[in-house]
Specification:
With 325 residues, the chain is mainly α. It contains 13 helices and no strands. It has one domain. The longest helix has 48 residues. The chain is globular and about 70 Å long.
């Protein structure tokens, strides 16, 4: 009973801000961790040098395409609902090569490179965080590269990553669909009810997307650290997320705002997606945010797991107290 009480006392509950603070501390103050994650992020950085300018140019083309031809044009509710179909037709007619290219780049190499960095970041973040909590000396560079990844674990994590990616993409497409409707409606200020419907739907889906994204990211962490893959990892992440959805939502909101905020200036000011120091800075900050994000979700996983252990210990203690009278 005394050991269980000590475990409960040791498992400090972390809020979203505390998790971010610890993630930033690990990422910024541990020199070996910082050097190793920078080296492992180099392939992703180099690929983004090609991808980001192309993405900016593509998004600018879409924003120009969405501009209405006339402010006097009458839009009914049915025509508003058909906007995504019209956009798809225009994309197929005006941007067929770009659409295929960005789709293939987004689906395959970008996420494979991201997964390769995630594998290293989560593994090192786990070792660094546990050593820090146990007040042990930090990892050396030799210790960081000492143990290679098991092939089975890499393949299993890839399966979990694909599951999370598919669910995330479907949710993101729903957000884009509502955002496209809202974008055109605001250009005409036609129907207040439609505007309210778009806002409610968009915010509701955005909240669900960010909240569940925390669980999807945790499932990848579980695959890397505990060897559970696919639906088992997803189920474990959902189980640990019970009662912690709000904290996960706040974490994802921070990183989502970071990623979107880095791209918005280029779209808003109409940058043509050319290679520049600004884009290199944006990509560097994006990679830095990616490191902090996965360190944060590693800590988030441990905290959710500790809370579950604490809950079970408390239930056992109560059960023993009842049985002993």
């Amino acid at each position: 009973m005394e050991i269980e009480s000590n475990l409960i006392i040791k498992n400090d509950k972390l809020e979203a801000f505390d998790i971010l603070r610890k993630a930033l501390t690990i990422s910024a103050t541990n020199i070996n961790f910082l050097i190793f994650t920078i080296l492992t992020s180099l392939p992703l950085f180099c690929f983004l040098v090609y991808y980001e300018p192309f993405l900016h140019k593509f998004l600018l083309g879409i924003s120009e395409m969405l501009k209405p031809p006339s402010a006097d044009l009458y839009w009914s509710t049915l025509s508003l609902l058909s906007i995504p179909t019209d956009i798809t037709r225009k994309l197929n007619n005006e941007f067929p090569e770009g659409l295929v290219q960005i789709g293939l780049v987004y689906l395959i190499p970008l996420h494979l490179l991201e997964l390769s960095t995630v594998l290293v970041i989560v593994d090192l973040a786990s070792k660094t965080y546990t050593r820090q909590e146990e007040e042990e000396p930090p990892l050396t560079l030799k210790e960081m590269v000492h143990k290679p990844f098991d092939v089975t674990r890499v393949i299993g994590t890839l399966v979990t990553f694909v599951y999370a990616f598919i669910i995330s993409t479907i949710s993101l497409l729903g957000l884009i669909w509502l955002a496209a409707i809202y974008y055109v409606v605001t250009k005409f200020n036609y129907d207040v009810l439609v505007l309210v419907w778009c806002w409610v739907g968009f915010l509701g889906l955005m909240t669900m997307y960010l909240g569940w994204s925390a669980a999807w990211n945790m499932s990848v962490v579980i695959s890397i650290l505990e060897g559970r893959y696919g639906t088992k990892a997803m189920a474990s992440a959902i189980f640990y997320s019970v009662g912690n959805v709000w904290r996960g939502f706040r974490l994802m909101l921070v990183f989502f705002a970071w990623e979107v905020g880095l791209r918005l200036p280029y779209i808003y000011f109409g940058c043509k997606g050319t290679w520049s120091v600004g884009i290199l800075t944006q990509i560097g900050l994006f990679c830095l945010g990616n490191v902090v994000k996965w360190v944060a979700f590693t800590i988030y996983f441990y905290d959710c797991k500790n809370r579950e252990i604490e809950r079970k210990l408390i239930m056992k203690a109560k059960k023993r107290a009842v049985e002993s009278g």
